[in-house]
Amino acid sequence: MARAVTTNRKVVSTVFGWAIAILIFFPILWTILTSFKTEAEAIASPPSFLVFDWTLENYSTVQERSDYFLHFMNSVILSLGSTVLGLLIAIPAAWSMAFVPAKRTKDVLMWMLSTKMLPPVGVLVPIYLIFRDIGLLDTRLGLVIVLTLINLPIIIWMLFTYFREIPGDILEAARMDGASLRDEIIHVLTPMAVPGIASTLLLNVILAWNEAFWTLNLTAANAAPLTAFIASYSSPEGLFYAKLSAASTMAIAPILILGWFSQKQLVRGLTFGAVK
Amino acid sequence: MSLRTSALMGACAVMALATAASAETTITVATVNNGDMIRMQGLTSDFEAKHPDIKVEWVTLEENVLRQRVTTDVATKGGQYDVMTIGTYEVPIWGKQGWLVGLNDLPESYDVDDLLPAIRGGLTVDGTLYAAPFYGESSMVMYRKDLVEAAGLEMPEAPTWDQVREIAAATTDKANEVYGICLRGKAGWGENMAFLTAMSNSFGAKWFDMEWTPQFDSPEWKRTLTFYLDLMENYGPPGASSNGFNENLALFQTGKCAMWIDATVAASFVTNPDESEVADQVGFALAPDNGLGKRGNWLWAWNLGIPAGTEKEEAAKAFVEWATSKEYTELVAEKEGWANVPPGTRTSLYENPAYLEAAPFAQMTLESIEAADPQNPTVDEVPYVGVQFVAIPEFQGLGTAVGQQFSAALAGQVTAEQALANAQTLTEREMKRAGY
After folding, report:
1. To 10 degrees, the CA torsion angle through A130, A133, A137, A140?
2. Transmembrane segments in this chain: where (chain B) (predicted)?
3. Which range marks the domain in which residue B40 is found?
């Protein structure tokens, strides 16, 4: 029987939940509000919250100065490209580790995770040299490869966790019915793992969208995504907070909207298997 | 005509067109996000009109990101950029490494002798000019005339540190959130250490002696740091250990600081009525001294350099020449007014009455720049070049590590003595490791 929850407790937990949510969302809200202020209002003390002269001037300046569409398209191509490529590699890898584990599978998983512990700047120069020699600097292809590689451990780990929850008996039954390995993965495993794959996909798109080390260091004029677009408005010498906020809002808007619409999938995927 | 012949002729025509198109050179310019650079970006069409065969692509990045980005590229000869915006810190190091194209062959019409000697000196290694200055800056005192006057005091044109302390004490009104002095406290070699290294020069301190032995255990450094901490603790704004240029600019513009010692480039911001609440009350003075012959002001310039190994050297040179020429100054003046021309690079600009009239801070900027000598930055002789930095590759890491110690002292986490002792130890260790 479900425990009776008093109204008081409900109110307290609701208020608490909202307070935490607002606290977390506040910096983003502040960025959005600042993007509609003038530069002078952006630094005003005490700051004005909602009562100020709303202006779209920053957006038009940003639009005038930079090619938002080029950066946006690069972000879309990089995040989707690296996610699709990553999934193509990770699904078979996670399948083999979940259903046909070998003696060293756990070690392999830990080793994969350990690659995430290396500070990226430690391998910047070697990767830069390799990219220079094979002509991948400032290309979308080069970045898709790098982003796939850096996110691959996380994709494999997530998929491995989901796949482990799927009873091996079902796959075995499919095999008994004469399904080939390909059929087994495509027609039996994948449909059952759709929520897990979907949330992995979404998380990876977000990670790739926000990646700001490699996307800044390996690009110049052609393949730079929205992270470089934001970096072009930040300045240690000069107050351009309103313009920086406008550029940031434009950069995060697509992913914010995507996250908003897919939050159910995301939460479901992330908590999948947490409660049995 | 057979189908095959027409196809062949068509192919030839396409190839001819493609060759014609490829005669156009595209150069990529990497730059920082500040007002003067953005203005230059807006005027690119003038350059492209004068050089129809050259197209310019811009990559604008935040200063620290740009530094990391262009350093990787120039060191690996990555060839991503044809023109790079670099500071006076990088030019001598990169020039010595052979990473930059020498610019001694600029045409006579460029008038290289017109460049301010202090700035030009910092960009020259063994007689070769390795970058052309786009704008130059020093640091100076910006103060509120109304507050100083209300306190019954007067700001001398060349104040001493004791006079600065006296004015700071008299103008501080913490109840009304007005602080006598705002100075950088945020850790970083280009943040608090730019200020403190320049300040230490006027106290007779130095980073290294002639044997490259760190000098943080000297009485001069102790005097510098305790004076700074005392000034900031008593008359500075709260939370100053996280204040950099931008934070202090915001404080000054909103009327919370009576004095601010920082980059001369700030003068155009604080006197702009669209941005600043105190625009009509700002006065300027030289950075303070202690009567030892050196002032506490720095010298910096953003310069355009060409990485060695670029395949488009000619086009890149044409661009650098255009962007740092006298004609460019006139172009900006014509389109946006004299107050907006990039300052601090050419003598002729400071002889131009139109400029002197439009920019009330011009004379003080020039005097500040001329008061700094990167070749002889300190009271005693030192083995290094650079006023607010030491032009060795290790300085970025060292400066930031020492800056963290001094920032921690400002935040009250360590004492001045501890901060200096830590700075001495870590500098000794790093210099030993680097083989000095």
Report:
1. -80
2. none
3. 24-130+299-358
Distance CA B80, CA A138 (A): 8
Q: What is the pTM of this model?
A: 0.85
Paired residues of B261 in beta bridges: B141
> CA-CA distance, B33 to A231, in Å (whole number)?
9
Phi, then psi, of B241 in degrees rounded to 5: -70, -10
- Based on the fold, state whether residues B303 and B283 are members of the same structural domain: no
Which class for A126: exposed (0-12), middle (13-18), buried (19 or more C-beta within 10 A)? exposed
Q: Do B33 and A238 touch (CB under 8 A)?
A: yes
Q: Is B303 exposed, middle or buried (0-12, 13-18, 19+ CB in 10 A)?
A: buried
**B222 or B12: which leads in pLDDT:** B222
Q: How far is it, in rounded angstroms, from Cα B398 to Cα B404?
A: 10
CATH number at residue B391: 3.40.190.10
Match domain A66-232 to its CATH number in 3.20.20.70, 2.60.410.10, 1.10.760.10, 1.10.3720.10: 1.10.3720.10
Closest approach of B195 to chain A, Cα-based (Å): 14
Evaluate whether B299 touches B369 at the Cβ level (below 8 Å).
Answer: yes
**Are B34 and A217 a contacting pair at CB < 8 A?**
no
Residue with tokens 């938002």: A68
pLDDT digits (tens, 9 = 90+) for A111-155: 998 988 889 989 999 999 999 999 999 999 999 999 999 999 999
Is residue B12 domain-resident? no
- Distance (Å, rounded) from C-alpha B29 to C-alpha B22? 19
Question: B54 and B156: one domain?
Answer: no
- The pLDDT tens digits for B54-64 are 999 999 988 88
Nearest-CB residue to A237 (from B34, B75, B77): B34
Tokens 């690009």 found at? A219
Taking 50 as the threshold, does the pLDDT of residue A276 lie above it? no
pLDDT (0 to 100) of residue B20: 45
Of residues B129, B49, B138, the one with CA closest to residue B304: B129
Complete DSSP assignment for A28-96: HHHHHHHTTS-HHHHT-SSPPSS-S----HHHHHHHHHS-HHHHHHHHHHHHHHHHHHHHHHHHHHHHH
By C-alpha distance, which of B300, B319, B322 is closest to B310? B319
Residue A171 pLDDT grade (very low, low, confident, very high; cuts 50, 70, 90): confident
CA distance B63 to chain A (A): 7
CB contact under 8 A, A220 and B65: no
Q: Give yes or no for a contact between B198 and B298, defined as CB atoms under 8 angstroms apart.
A: yes
End-to-end CA gap in chain A: 17
Model confidence at B1: pLDDT above 50:
no
The domain locations on chain A are 66-232
